[in-house]
Amino acid sequence: MAEDFEIDTADLERRMEGAIASLRVEFSSLRTGRASASLLEPVMVDAYGQMTPINQVGTVNVPEPRMVTINVWDKGLVNKVEKAIRNSGLGINPQMNGTIIMLPIPELNEERRRDLTKVASTYAENARVAIRNVRRDGMDQIKKAKNDGMSEDDQKFWETEVQDLTNKFIGRVDETLETKQAEIMQV
């Protein structure tokens, strides 16, 4: 009878893995004093009546360790790209040079580093919440199976499996956060 009630832990694991991948993308947008093209990934530009990622309106380059440039393809969008960067909260002051926008990456001061570690903590907490939501879905599947006749022993087994999976992924979020915070605080 236990074969009738399989909980799809592979699906739960895939969804939790998605939360980790999303966290890594968010972390890559946090600057650590070094220039990176991924810094601009979350920035959206109001182009042609819709919000568009910045890398779809121009070429993003990193010519120097402390400089990011954006070569905007459409002259009409240069001011919109500049405005999007200013309003993004990255703390970078864009400099215009025709269709090229230069973003000098300033040294991070201690206060800004602390602020960025708080932002990183917020991103990590969002990932934990996403993982817990996946856990809740798994537990709901187990409850439904219990109501459909799953034995109590099977219920306990699957609850333990789902909880172990959740703990593993929460631990990975914590490790990723520690690494990112150490990187941010490094002078």
TrEMBL record:
Its keywords, alphabetically, are:
Cytoplasm, Protein biosynthesis
Any one GO molecular-function label of the UniProt entry: ribosomal large subunit binding
PANTHER family attached to this UniProt entry = MITOCHONDRIAL RIBOSOME RECYCLING FACTOR PSEUDO 1, RIBOSOME RECYCLING FACTOR
Any one Gene Ontology BP term? cytoplasmic translational termination
Q: Where in the cell is it found?
A: Cytoplasm
Gene Ontology cellular-component terms listed: cytosol
Please indicate which superkingdom the organism of origin belongs to: Bacteria
Q: What does this protein do?
A: Responsible for the release of ribosomes from messenger RNA at the termination of protein biosynthesis. May increase the efficiency of translation by recycling ribosomes from one round of translation to another.
State the protein's name. Ribosome-recycling factor
What Pfam families has UniProt attached to this entry? RRF
Family listed: Belongs to the RRF family.
Q: What InterPro entries is this protein classified in?
A: Ribosome_recyc_fac, Ribosome_recyc_fac_dom, RRF_sf
